[in-house]
Amino acid sequence: MAYKTDKSSKSTAPVVPPGGLSLSRVVYFALVLSFFFVTVILLGPSKGWIGILEVALYELPAAVLIFISAGGWGWILLHKWMPQKAVKGLKAGTYVGTGLWILGTSVLVAGRFIDGAFNAALWWPVIGGGMGLALWGGKPYLRNKPLSQRIGLPMIILTLLFSLIAALWLAGASLPAGLIGRANGDYYDVVSYHLQVPREFYESGQIQFLPHNTYSNYPLGLHMLYLLGMTLRGGAFQGVYTAKLIHGLFGVMACLSLFYGFPKKNKKAPYTSVIFLASMPGIVYVSWLAFAELSQVAYMVTGLLWLLYWIEADGKDEKKAAAFIGMAAGAACATKYLSVGLVAGPLLLIMFVFALFKRKKYVSVLTAVTASVVMFFPWLLRNFMNTGNPVFPLATSIFGLGHWTEEMGARWDAGHAPRPVIDKFPQILETLTGITLFGPIVVFLAFAAVILVLKSSDKKWRLVVLVTFFVFLLQLKIWALATHMPGRFLLPAAAPIAILGGMGVESILEQLNKFSTKASFPLVMGIIIAALTVNLAAIRYLYFREPAVETAIHGLNQNDLSQIPGWSWLRREVGPDGKMLSVGDAQAFVLPERTVYTSAWEKDLLVKSVRRGRKPAEILYYLRHEHGITHIWFNWSEIERLRNSYGWWDEVSPDIVEGLIIAGAVEITPPEELHFYHSPSYPPPVQLLKLPPLIRARRSNFSRNYRPTPGL
């Protein structure tokens, strides 16, 4: 049975003296490295593999050092409170996760109250101090593990698999920001706020309210780590790959926490569970992007493993485990609002249900809730200070609209309103059975675990499976009822699905052993290989469907956009001294520097001008002389999309462009290389206007009543 220790099993491998380095260990490391490099070379189109290796060798170390340092700061804070019986891997994952929250919160506080806080000379000592603490605290983990210890075949296979997936991760993550995710539009979030908001903080030297970007009010715990990476690398563009790799390392952290933090009495499920988690197409895909989902997955793994520990714990260990559940839940909430429903909600609700049967556990539930609120509180306080609404832009009808008007709040609510439940069932089935998120075979194995557990006589086994399954069901319910259901929003469910998938494999093996022990193992291995093959094929599809992969620009400096169609032309036309107003296009990270933009929910300078009754000549004078605008960029393709989804301002139309041209603006025809823009309703999908240096129009009284909007 899965949770019974087999004390009779002993290794028959010859013992190697602890002083030497065994030949098997040397061959093992050589094999892993060779496998990784060969995979990278095969993946890199043309000479793209050189850029992939450059990112791995020059950019990855900075991201890794942040995680090591986080482990040290987490260890010094928590090691005295750790339950003695907890698995070492779970402890280590908790140290790192808590330390990352500490570093992110420290960046928030420093950037809020200290001018010029984003200085590498200030933060490298912080990273170095954490690394020293990590080395000191890591001594127990390194003991009794001599280099001469032999490596078993399962670990060799597992590490080779991780080498393959690591190569796939780095291949996508080494493409410049704004290219991966273009096939389905996910790139837009990356270049409009995931990377753009930290960039604006870095370039301004402080963390301030950005009224022109609604998404800057989201919890930015992970984005503070992006900002830290930019600071350590000496620039926003220089730190792009570091930021993307920080997000990917959360996926690595999730896999290591799952493998080494699994209940130690279980022998097989950790191997299969971590294989399923690491190879999930959705996990690898978002690791190429600077998103927030992998931080949710990592904290979900930690919180769920502590929940399984808490169920059987008692006394002080029970309260400590409850605190760590709450800390993981709160740290996840500090990275994304949806974690309240997809991470914290399921974990805390399961705890409450157990407390109904064991009244002594009510104290633990209160402890967990308190810990989660404490970890989430810095972002609630920051939003309250900025807008008066602690969860802005959510719940505006309860806590207030902040700087928004009623019209803007209504547009936000309409754009994010969930669809009727009856319309969602096809998408739920498609998400669970599709190949691009969890993998259909893994999902099948997860449900198989729930079905087969009914035949198990081990109560602990049944309890673990059922608790994990109910966590998944709660996540699925929140995703379906409270969101407009992008598939990646459900990605935190990867943690329970991977655990259930591993348990499903073990349950199938147990049932097959009743009929034939010789045939059971090959059959189960066939299932694992089939699941892995489907997942890897889906990852390959996701990688090569991106049009940018063919251009072989891996590792390209974000400042050098000469090889990227469209963007190079736009930067050249605006010039280093120009300043562009972007209308309808918020992907400011890849637009020319000094671009003035707004997100879909804010009124830009053009909309405000029209609403104040200014005529075209007055608008040109206002933009040129009050704000220094030299060019106006109209992305009609994006405006059309917004009109048909979230809504867009009626004031922005081709008529206003015609009026500006008549008043003196010069239209610059975009080249055909802007192929990634498409708008069937507007013949030119994009337009660029150049404002004249001198506008011969009488200056109107509008300027006397104008107050510049902060941040524009």
In short:
The protein is mostly helical and 712 residues long. It contains 28 helices and four strands.
Descriptive report:
This protein has 712 residues and is an all-alpha fold. A four-stranded mixed sheet has the order 1-2-4-3. Helix 1 packs across helix 2, helix 8 packs across helix 9 (221-233) and helix 13 (293-312) runs parallel beside helix 15. It contains 28 helices and four strands. It is globular and about 85 Å long. Mean pLDDT is 85; it is low at 1-21 and 697-712. The protein is 60% helix and 2% strand.
* Tally of helical runs: 28
Q: How much strand content do the residues show? A: under 5%
Q: Please describe the biggest sheet, giving its number of strands, its sense, and whether it closes into a barrel.
A: 4 strands, mixed
Sheet/helix structural class: mainly alpha
| Uncertain segments | 1-21, 697-712
Mean pLDDT: 85
Could you give the count of β-strands? 4
Distance between the termini: 64 Å
Give the strand order of the largest sheet, numbering strands 1, 2, ... along the chain.
1-2-4-3
Share of helical residues:
55-70%
Topology:
Elements: H1 23-43, H2 48-78, H3 88-113, H4 120-137, H5 139-142, H6 153-173, H7 187-194, H8 196-204, H9 221-233, H10 240-261, H11 269-279, H12 281-287, H13 293-312, H14 315-333, H15 339-357, H16 362-387, H17 396-399, H18 406-416, H19 425-433, H20 440-452, H21 459-482, H22 494-513, H23 517-544, H24 567-574, E1 580-583, H25 605-611, H26 616-627, E2 631-635, H27 636-644, H28 654-662, E3 666-668, E4 686-690
Parallel strand pairs: 1-2
Antiparallel strand pairs: 2-4, 3-4
Helix pairs in contact: 1-2, 1-6, 2-3, 2-4, 2-10, 3-9, 3-10, 3-13, 3-14, 4-9, 6-11, 8-9, 9-10, 10-11, 10-12, 10-13, 11-22, 11-23, 12-23, 13-14, 13-15, 14-15, 14-16, 15-16, 15-21, 20-21, 20-22, 21-22, 22-23, 26-28
